[in-house]
Amino acid sequence: MRPLPLIACLFTAAVGGGLAVHALDGRAAGDRPASAPDTRALDAQAAAATSGANRLMAAAAAAAEAAVPSAQAALPAMAAGAAPSLAPMLEGVTPAVVNIYTRQVVEVQSPLAADPLFRRFFGIPDGPQRRESQSLGSGVIVDAERGYVLTNHHVVDNATEVSVQLHDGRTVEAEFIGSDPGTDVALIRIPAENLRALPLANSQGLRVGDFVVAVGNPFGLGQTVTSGIVSAVGRSGLTGLGFQDFIQTDASINPGNSGGALVNLRGELVGINTASFNPRGSAAGNIGLGFAIPANLAREVMRQLLVYGEVKRGSLGLELADLTPRFAQELGLDARVRGAIVTRVYRNSPGEAAGLRPGDVITGINGQRVDGAQPLRNAEGLLPINQPATLDVRRGGQSLRLQATLREPPKQLPGSDIDPRLAGATLGEMADRFRDAGLVGVAVADVDPRSRAAQNGLRAGDRIFGVNGRRVDNLAALRSALAQPPPRLVVRVQRGAQQGDLELR
After folding, report:
1. Overall fold of domain 318-405
2. Is CB count within 10 Å lower at the N or C end of the chain?
3. CA 478 – CA 469 distance, rounded (Å)
4. 246-261: per-residue pLDDT in tens?
5. Which segment of 66-70, 98-102, 208-212 scores lowest on mean pLDDT?
6. How do 224-235 and 269-277 pair as beta strands?
7. Contacts (Cβ under 8 Å, ≥6 apart) of 223
8. What ranges do the domains of the chain cover?
9. Could you tell me the pTM of the whole model?
10. 295 three-state secondary structure
């Protein structure tokens, strides 16, 4: 059997009764268990260390705990005369971690079914056929009173039904609140009483070497606990996983762990498990490279989903390129310098307000090193709107530190801000109802009849979805495509039911 892709999202899916391990491209293998095991919360609490060497060890652990940040790992609890154990901590954790089961129903129709003779010969009914798929994942209760559960976007994406199995065996239907594909965080709500929630730690305090425990529902087996350490923090550069600021851990996490808890030894949530890595594919098993979304990021995403119904991301309003050794030499910089070159600063943008200029090299943001254009875009995407940012900048032989406040990208722009040949047009994002129908591009909201855009043939109501053979999905993509104005500009336009090309002069 061919192995699955290197980076695998950690949930399992069943189609037609069979279990599948889904990676990023949706390939699948395996068989689904008949049902998830029923596990029960433990009732007893372990006693504190009270005598001899155990008392001394407990005192040493308490002293060490007081000297480090709250997310620092503590020693496992020890009862008198007993071996170290994570059980007392887990008694408070496991009731807050749930199993998530989703069902998706889609309508499909074979192209052969369009032929009435073919349908009659093979007895195929008229109309599309319904196909059902199921998936398994995990979630974490973070608000017991309101029933809020954090999980991964890919666990509940496009689900028709979402049900949650609690630690005590109860199964309840969940309400979808919102999700953010960019960070792979989703929020659902369950109408249940007597819930137990996990407190969210300040994940900023995590250090390499801190002990962590992963709790989830791998392969649909039921709640499972594994332990390890934090292997790295702020991990990024993983293909296909959106905005990235991952906690890397060697705690064993596998398909089905998606959306589950990564906790410190205080029983606090430090991350949401989301992906694993194996050069031979996820079917080869875990090799100690798992990734979790930091609790601080998940907390901010949840806040925005509750306030806005979506995540609003800030932008500096820049066009960027990687600083290569050749560019560094041309700019008079050491070839070892890494960063993102500013190639364009948009008018009235946070970057312009901060004093950035084309040719500046951004080497850091908020104390985090920037090695290229994509790491800077990643850092932008992880910061909320109106969030101040400190930029480390190289300008010629000078090192500067500039302050910028990120703002939400504009929904509409004058065409002249993008390209002079669009002057007189007002361009904006497509309405949500059109995007939901699969229409992408940029809407021409208005055109001054005396303008250059009008002379070039643009009309209000047009939809621009291509530039010089390059697909354009939104306003940001149009700005990016025209960051360096081409000598010849041809836009692909839809007007009513017709599509065609307009050359703008």
Report:
1. Pdz3 Domain (2.30.42)
2. N
3. 12
4. 899 988 888 888 899 9
5. 66-70
6. unpaired
7. 37, 39, 94, 97, 99, 167, 215, 216, 217
8. 1-46+85-311, 52-84, 318-405, 412-504
9. 0.67
10. helix
* 59 C-beta neighbours (distance < 10 Å), count: 11
Query: Which tens digit of pLDDT belongs to each residue from 282-293?
Result: 555 567 788 999
The CATH code that applies to domain 412-504 is 2.30.42.10
Most confident segment among 241-245, 279-283, 291-295: 291-295
Distance in Å from the first CA to the final CA of the chain:
56
Run of H or E residues at 253: none
Give the up-direction half-sphere exposure of residue 452: CA atoms within 13 A in the CB hemisphere: 11
Q: What pLDDT is stored for residue 109 in this prediction?
A: 56
CA 397 to each of CA 163, 329, 361: distance values in angstroms, whole numbers, following the listed order = 59, 12, 11
Region of poorest pLDDT, from 93-102, 278-287, 376-385: 278-287
Going from the C-alpha of 57 to that of each of 6, 60, 76, 84, 229, the distances in angstroms are: 42, 5, 11, 11, 21
- What is the enclosing helix (H) or strand (E) of 467? strand 463-467
Fold of 1-46+85-311: Thrombin, subunit H (2.40.10)
SS (H, E, C) 39-91: CCCCCCCCCCCCCHHHHHHHHHHHHHHHCCCCCCCCCCECCCCCCCECHHHHH
- The residues pairing with 320 across neighbouring beta strands, listed in sequence order, are 342
Does this chain's domain 1-46+85-311 share its CATH topology with 318-405?
no
Fill in the DSSP letter of residue 119: H
Beta-carbon contacts of 123 under 8 Å, excluding residues fewer than 6 positions away, are none
Q: Which residues are catalytic?
A: 154, 184, 258
449-479, pLDDT tens digit by residue? 999 999 999 999 999 999 999 999 888 889 8
CB atoms under 10 Å from CB of 308, counted, come to 11
211-216 vs 224-235, strand pairing mode:
antiparallel
